[in-house]
Structure formats: structure tokens, C-alpha cells
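quick q for whoever's on today - can somebody do inverse folding on this one?? i tried earlier but teh output was garbage lol. C-alpha cells:
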């Protein structure tokens, strides 16, 4: 499988909400960085526990909005919701030997655009 296919399979597995199965696409010693909160997660077991115990209102649904791939690096833009919480993850994956070995994720918050530029933009 190509790196892009591995990342697509990972997000497809995440869609099932069986986070242990999704983690099979991650190396045992994966390193995941969340720069905004300055957290580093080491290991498949730790990320599986975080995903499995994250508070939610229901099943998580993931929508792949964009994917870009260049050799062993794949970037995804994913929208996700549990029916109440709506979030977005910009994820930078490094794939080696058929598994994701590094992952850096940014979780941007939405915000209200300032009124001063309303005449210059389109809101969607």
C-alpha cells in the first residue's frame, strides 16, 4: 500500500469508533505531537486510550475534507463531530513500512470574523 492509502485506511478505521482497530495503522512506538497544547503522546497504547476515553455525546463521525501526499508524508484536513462538538484536525502523517510512525495534529478553533472586514470577504 502507498502511504496515502495507509492514511485513508486509518481514517476509515477511525470512522468505526473502534479506536483499537484504528490504532493498528500506527506503529507501536508512534510519536504524536499536539503543538497547541504542547503534548507529546508516545505509543499506540496511549493514543488508543486517549481516543477511547475522550468525553463525547455519541459516536464520532469523520469527514475527510482534503488529503495531500508526497512520498511518505501525507497531510489530511478532517472535520469531526459527535453530534454536539464540531472540530477540525489538520494532521501531518509520516508513514514507514506500512504504518504511521509520526503524527503532528493541529486542532484549530473557529472564531467570529471581525466586522471591520465584512465588506471585503464572503462568509460561508
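ok took a stab at it. sequence:
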Amino acid at each position: 500500500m502507498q502511504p496515502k492509502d495507509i492514511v485513508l485506511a486509518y481514517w476509515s478505521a477511525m470512522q468505526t469508533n473502534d479506536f483499537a482497530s484504528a490504532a493498528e495503522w500506527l506503529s507501536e512506538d508512534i510519536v504524536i505531537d499536539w503543538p497547541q497544547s504542547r503534548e507529546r503522546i508516545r505509543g499506540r497504547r496511549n493514543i488508543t486510550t486517549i481516543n477511547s476515553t475522550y468525553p463525547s455525546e455519541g459516536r464520532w463521525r469523520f469527514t475527510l475534507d482534503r488529503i495531500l501526499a508526497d512520498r511518505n508524508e501525507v497531510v489530511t484536513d478532517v472535520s469531526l463531530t459527535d453530534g454536539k462538538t464540531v472540530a477540525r484536525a489538520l494532521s501531518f502523517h509520516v508513514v514507514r513500512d506500512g504504518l504511521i510512525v509520526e503524527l503532528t495534529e493541529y486542532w484549530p478553533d473557529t472564531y467570529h470574523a471581525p466586522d471591520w472586514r465584512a465588506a471585503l470577504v464572503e462568509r460561508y
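fwiw Helices lie at 3-15, 19-22, 44-53. also The mean pLDDT is 97. so keep that in mind when u check it
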